[in-house]
């Protein structure tokens, strides 16, 4: 049966489930984009790798008490999730300085952040996802101060759990981006994906980059490093 396409983003297509009004089907694409869509390429197998990795991580989070929109993996490139209204914020958590913050604030590369930094960006392609403060986030969304604090607390707990999970596979979680949505009961839950597209992952021994930076910077083969992450997760979890 033909599913109704609700939305097509840079990395995923979102379909309405034909079985349940409150469920969506996410289909992971092979497209990779960087620099707000200026750099683009297709990688055969990327959709499968991100779907598998994201499914493993959402399951591992659930086992450790962190709820998300994830319901189940359906096939190699799709998963079933709870329908949420996505809150237009990119919540970035930083354990180690790299990427945009090193340029913006002249912080030396690899400086540790203890406690981790939580930053908010307004999810808006036309504006290039600008960094915003808490008051601007509340103004731009329908969140209360309490809702925003809840999101930041959740992001910190997720960071703790993910840092531990990645440590078991010899990978340091440098930074990552989360998105949250409101489900049909009005609860704020973790949504979107958690994958090497949205995390910076460095090998603990060699500092080799095992994430989308190899594409952003043209320093390695995306599929090879994403496969490395999936293989290690499958062996360990
Ligand atoms: N990130 C993301 N989507 C975005 C922007 C950032 O998933 O649109 C992730 C990125 O992979 C990294 C973290 O958020 O793990 C912090 O990214 P940063 O702000 O340093 O941006 P960049 O240097 O990639 O422009």
UniProtKB/TrEMBL annotation:
GO molecular function: ATP binding; phosphoribosylaminoimidazolesuccinocarboxamide synthase activity
Top enzyme class: ligase
Reaction(s) the record says it catalyses: 5-amino-1-(5-phospho-D-ribosyl)imidazole-4-carboxylate + L-aspartate + ATP = (2S)-2-[5-amino-1-(5-phospho-beta-D-ribosyl)imidazole-4-carboxamido]succinate + ADP + phosphate + 2 H(+)
Keywords: ATP-binding, Ligase, Nucleotide-binding, Purine biosynthesis
Pfam families, per the entry: SAICAR_synt
EC number(s) recorded for this UniProt protein: 6.3.2.6
Gene Ontology biological process terms in this record: 'de novo' IMP biosynthetic process; cobalamin biosynthetic process
Ranges of residues in domain SAICAR synthetase/ADE2 N-terminal: 5-232
InterPro entries assigned: SAICAR_synt/ADE2_N, SAICAR_synt_PurC, SAICAR_synth, SAICAR_synthetase, SAICAR_synthetase_CS
Pathway where this protein functions: Purine metabolism; IMP biosynthesis via de novo pathway; 5-amino-1-(5-phospho-D-ribosyl)imidazole-4-carboxamide from 5-amino-1-(5-phospho-D-ribosyl)imidazole-4-carboxylate: step 1/2
PANTHER family in UniProt: MULTIFUNCTIONAL PROTEIN ADE2 (PTHR43599), SI:DKEY-6E2.2 (PTHR43599:SF3)
Stated family: Belongs to the SAICAR synthetase family.
Full protein name: Phosphoribosylaminoimidazole-succinocarboxamide synthase
Species per Swiss-Prot/TrEMBL record: Ornithinibacillus sp. 4-3
Upper classification of the organism: Bacteria, Bacillati, Bacillota, Bacilli, Bacillales
């Amino acid at each position: 049966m033909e599913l109704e396409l609700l939305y097509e983003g840079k990395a995923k297509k979102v379909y309405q489930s034909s079985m349940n009004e409150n469920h969506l089907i996410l289909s992971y694409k092979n497209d990779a984009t960087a620099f707000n869509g200026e750099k683009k390429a297709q990688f055969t197998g990327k959709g499968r790798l991100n779907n598998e990795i994201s499914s493993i991580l959402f399951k591992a989070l659930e086992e450790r008490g962190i709820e998300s929109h994830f319901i189940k993996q359906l096939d190699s490139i799709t998963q079933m999730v709870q329908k949420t209204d996505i809150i237009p914020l990119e919540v970035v958590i930083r354990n180690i300085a790299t990427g945009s913050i090193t340029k913006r604030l002249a912080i030396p590369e690899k400086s540790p952040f203890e406690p981790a930094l939580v930053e908010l960006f307004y999810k808006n392609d036309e504006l290039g996802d600008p960094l915003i403060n808490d008051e601007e986030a509340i103004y731009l969304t329908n969140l209360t101060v309490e809702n925003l604090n809840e999101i930041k607390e959740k992001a910190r707990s997720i960071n703790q759990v993910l840092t531990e999970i990645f440590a078991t596979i010899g990978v340091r979680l440098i930074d990552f981006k989360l998105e949250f949505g409101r489900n049909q009961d009005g609860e704020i839950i973790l949504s979107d994906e958690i994958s090497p597209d949205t995390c910076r992952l460095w090998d603990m021994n060699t500092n080799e980059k095992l994430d989308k930076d190899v594409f952003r910077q043209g320093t390695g083969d995306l599929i090879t490093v994403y496969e490395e992450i999936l293989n290690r997760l499958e062996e360990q979890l």
